[in-house]
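User: I'll paste a sequence; please echo it back and then give the predicted structure.

Assistant: Echoing your sequence first, then the prediction.
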Amino acid sequence: IPDSRAKVVVLDSDWREIATAQTDNPAHRNGPENLAYVIYTSGSTGKPKGVQIPHRAVVNFLISMSRAPGMTEADRLLSVTTLSFDIAGLEIYLPLIVGASVEIVSREVSSDGYQLLAKLAGSSATVMQATPVTWRMLIEAGWKGTPNLKILCGGEAISRKLATQLLQSGGSVWNMYGPTETTIWSTCSRIASEHEPIVIGRPIANTDIFILDELLQPVPIGVAGEL
């Protein structure tokens, strides 16, 4: 352990001191504004910065996701996202709060299309979330689809070609959008037809989105601006 001011508790030699500590559970002092996690992102500036996400934002996100795209205790999610990517929060916490099951895939398997294809085929998964790169990797490995699989796709823009391929491969396809700063996904939209335009959808529960001009004023309907 590098030099620091952290207090080090050595379990194999500090038992005498440990035995004098209280045995009652400590008082619970966490609230909605306490931090759930801090994650680094380059954002749109290219300059890495720590984004502080409070518990209330994560809880609101998870409750909203349980409704749309939706998840119940009958679901099984195949988790393929590295823990250093914030969207892994959906894969780990959402199944837990709704009583669903989750199978965590190793980095070795999730980065190899053929191994991931075999894992998906044998997992009985009903939900899988991945980036367009991973979905394309699966298709290129020969994936012919998984009936009734709920497909969540996000992290970068989904192409029309990929959306059409996914529509032919599972039960439903959802386009997920959101910067790390606003807690994982900010909007979502079900892609229902290969003939409809691909949109990022509407904001998740208890949030709003605004389209603003360069002076941060709302733009009229139909006028391009910044989200």
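Strands lie at 35-41, 49-54, 76-79, 101-104, 127-130, 150-154, 172-177, 187-191, 202-203. Residues 152 and 185 are 11 Å apart (CA to CA).
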